[in-house]
Amino acid sequence: MRAIWKGAVSFGLVSIGVKLYSATEEKDIRFHQVHRDDGGRIRYKRTCSVCGEEVSYDDIAKGYDLGGGELVILTDADFADLPLTSSRAIDVLEFVPAEQVDPILYNKAYFLEPEGTATKPYVLLRDALADSERVAIVKVALRQREQLATLRVRDGVLLLNTMLWPDEVRTPDFGFLDEDLKVRPPELAMAASLIDSMAGEFQPDAFTDDYRAALQEVIDAKVEGREVVQPAEEEAAPAAAVDLMAALKASVERARVARGETPSGGAGEPTPISSARSAKRASKAQPAKTPTAKAAKTQGAKAEPAKKTPARKAPAQKAEPAKRTAEKKTTKAAAKKTAEKKTTRAPAKQAAEKKAAPRRSA
């Protein structure tokens, strides 16, 4: 890195020599304007609109537009006489809690490196600033302009963040701010649930510039003379929802599925933000599929006997007891007749034996 400024941090009666480096850099892919036919660079000449002559940098001054075509011309001598007492110093004004500085005020960031023998006081200020959990409010003059800035510690180095002046921040003036819009508690609770379902720890490395990567791929393909591979199409953004509550519920469910959590109506514990309507539809749809699948496997010829069989068995079960009763009655009648025959035959047999007895004795 190359130092863009040299000066000193004025901390009470202590002066710490430092070098200033840009802490950030833009990664945008830059292009030159060229002639489409032959690739020649397009050059712009600094010409005067009055005389038409080309003007060198040494002859260029700054003009302030008063309106109506009138200008006030300022030269380098006019700027040199301005009271920039902190032109080569970073004056510490006060130390404040970091949360009291609105992030909208931050502009650009610069690293500070100790210069020469200023390493020990530099480290002293760094450690004291880190222990205090505060940031230093400072004034510094950069590029012929006095700026408000903060001084804090990042990765063991003092970091200077230039800031906008309060009057450089615009005040929002929109019509809806004057409207009396009421948000229902259920909608607010659902929005809070959506925020909770999408909560996480900020990891900057997890995010990438997809447009720049795709543009670099196009450039590399041009250089290598190969065909450009079209990137996958992104999912279209959903249309504006009419039912805010339904959109919130759908967003919560989508966020939970994306995080691998059990959706509402599943085997897990139901969530208070689940959609009862969706669960009801799922419960109705599931049984309807089961008989359809079975009916596809079962042929009509097999299904008909299954329905007729109970009708045939029913009368058979009723007729069987009657048949057994008839058989029992027939058996009893036959046994009765046999007993009567034996009773009739017994006296006749006894009489015949009595007659035969004297004959045997004679």
TrEMBL record:
Entries under InterPro entries matching the protein: DNA_bd_Ku70/Ku80, Prok_Ku, SPOC-like_C_dom_sf
Pfam families: Ku
Low complexity bias spans: 284-303
Keyword Cytoplasm included in the entry's annotation: no
Composition bias type Basic and acidic residues, residue spans: 320-330
Keywords from the named record: DNA damage, DNA recombination, DNA repair, DNA-binding
Residue ranges of domain Ku in the record: 52-180
Family: Belongs to the prokaryotic Ku family.
Job of this protein: With LigD forms a non-homologous end joining (NHEJ) DNA repair enzyme, which repairs dsDNA breaks with reduced fidelity. Binds linear dsDNA with 5'- and 3'- overhangs but not closed circular dsDNA nor ssDNA. Recruits and stimulates the ligase activity of LigD.
Subunit structure of this chain's protein: Homodimer. Interacts with LigD.
Name of the protein this chain belongs to: Non-homologous end joining protein Ku
